[in-house]
Write a structure and sequence with these properties.
With 123 residues, the chain is mainly β. It has 1 helix and 10 strands, in the order ββββββββββα. β2 and β3 form a beta hairpin. The longest helix has 4 residues. The C terminus is likely disordered. The chain binds FE2/S2 (inorganic) cluster. Keywords: 2Fe-2S, Iron, Iron-sulfur, Metal-binding, Nitrate assimilation, Oxidoreductase. One of its GO terms (biological process) is nitrate assimilation. This is Nitrite reductase (NADH) small subunit.
Length: 123
């Protein structure tokens, strides 16, 4: 099945509710894909805006994750730090279709990451 700019990263069942899985990105930043207790899915770059703590290892509550390092709370919807903390981590557009998770390809393989296999490669 083709979804244009959407990248199939697997079935929704691979991520238990209330947890996250990481997705390594060749030539880019690791992504954390979250499954909330409400059954929603979100994807953020797996680096806290404070000091790059691994958000995938944080505690998910509602649509927020608490960073495991210094307890900043980050909105899963926007990637923004909440409360009195300031900062933002890129969020990756995500959709669920027929039980599978799709990420926006252009956001995963961002131009800022340099050559990451989006075009033809010299052998
Ligand atoms: S690295 Fe996330 S709160 Fe410090």
């Amino acid at each position: 099945m083709m979804f244009g700019d959407w990248l199939d990263i697997g079935p929704v069942t691979q991520i238990e509710a209330g947890t996250a899985r990481t997705l390594p990105v060749q030539g880019g930043e690791e992504i954390a894909v979250f499954h909330t207790m409400r059954g929603e899915f979100f994807a953020l770059v797996n680096a806290c805006p404070h000091r790059k703590g691994p958000l995938s290892q944080g505690i998910v509550h509602g649509d927020v994750v608490t960073c495991p390092l210094h307890n900043w709370t980050i909105s899963l919807r926007s990637g923004n730090a909440l409360g009195s903390d300031e900062g933002c981590v890129p969020s990756i557009p995500l959709k669920v279709d027929a039980g599978r998770i799709y990420l926006k390809r252009s956001a995963v393989v961002a131009p800022r990451a340099g050559p990451a296999g989006t075009g033809a490669r010299a052998a």
